[in-house]
């Protein structure tokens, strides 16, 4: 990539809460000349009016291997679902692991050497929680790839406003987090999706060599 012409970023999962915040911040950043955001359905007009945004429609189960937009200065991934949305553990693993790792391999093959993942607090391949175990497996898969710079961002409960789907457990958790914030350790406090996006974008632009992990409390300290 020619740094004199500004950065090109690839955003995966741009239709979600974190991904949309990543898109908004990236599109408003003068250091970024082009943003590519492949999604299943067209993104809203609130972002697609930007001339330097490319929004190809794709099937994540059959991604276009030869698309030239896989090559970017950095890829930021906020792909993910929930067990309830996915409908089964196999379907959840397909989205949160197979789709993420498949896209990462295509990025790497095209020459993208910086990858930033929105993971989760407590992610571990040895976790007793299926959700956190899959997140940990994805982190391991990515670490085994040859990225020059890999950043794993591990937020706690996400606070990003209303979601299109009903998540009563998450709503209750946010109410508790807000009500008892002073006594909740920083590691477990809810994190604004805009702060997660800012941490991801900073990591993508700085591209520190090697693997770094940004835990939830570090996201809060940065903002």
Which characteristics define this entry?
17% strand, NAD(P)-binding domain-containing protein, alpha/beta, two-stranded parallel ribbon, NAD(P)-bd_dom_sf, 223 residues, single chain, 8 helices, Rossmann fold
Written overview of the protein:
The chain is of the alpha/beta class. It has a single domain (3-222), classed as NAD(P)-binding Rossmann-like Domain (Rossmann fold, 3-Layer(aba) Sandwich), CATH 3.40.50. The chain contains eight helices and nine strands. It has helices spanning 17-27, 45-48, 83-86, 89-110, 130-143, 168-179, 193-206, 216-222; strands at 7-12, 32-36, 53-54, 74-77, 114-118, 149-154, 158-159, 191-192, 210-215. It has a seven-stranded parallel sheet with strand order 3-2-1-4-5-6-9, with helices on both faces. It has a two-stranded parallel ribbon with strand order 7-8. Helix 1 (17-27) crosses helix 7 and helix 4 packs parallel to helix 5. The two termini are 30 Å apart.
């Amino acid at each position: 990539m020619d740094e004199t012409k500004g950065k090109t970023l690839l955003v995966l999962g741009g239709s979600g809460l974190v991904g949309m915040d990543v898109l908004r911040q990236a599109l408003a950043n003068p250091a970024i000349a082009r943003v590519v955001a492949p999604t299943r359905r067209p993104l809203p007009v609130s972002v697609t009016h930007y001339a330097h945004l490319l929004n190809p429609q794709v099937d994540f189960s059959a991604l276009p291997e030869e698309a030239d937009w896989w090559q970017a200065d950095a890829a930021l991934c906020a792909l993910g679902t929930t067990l309830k949305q996915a409908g089964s553990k196999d379907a959840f693993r397909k989205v949160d692991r197979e789709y993420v790792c498949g896209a990462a391999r295509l990025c790497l093959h095209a020459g993208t050497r910086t990858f930033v993942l929105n993971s989760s607090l407590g992610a571990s391949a040895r976790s007793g929680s299926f959700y956190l175990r899959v997140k940990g497996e994805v982190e391991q898969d990515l670490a085994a790839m040859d990225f020059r710079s890999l950043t794993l961002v591990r937020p706690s409960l996400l606070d990003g406003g209303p979601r299109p789907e009903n998540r009563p457990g998450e709503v209750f958790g946010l109410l508790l987090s807000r009500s008892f914030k002073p006594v909740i350790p920083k590691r477990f406090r809810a994190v604004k999706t805009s702060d997660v996006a800012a941490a991801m974008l900073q990591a993508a632009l700085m591209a520190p060599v090697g693997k770094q992990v940004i835990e939830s409390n570090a996201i809060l300290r940065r903002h």
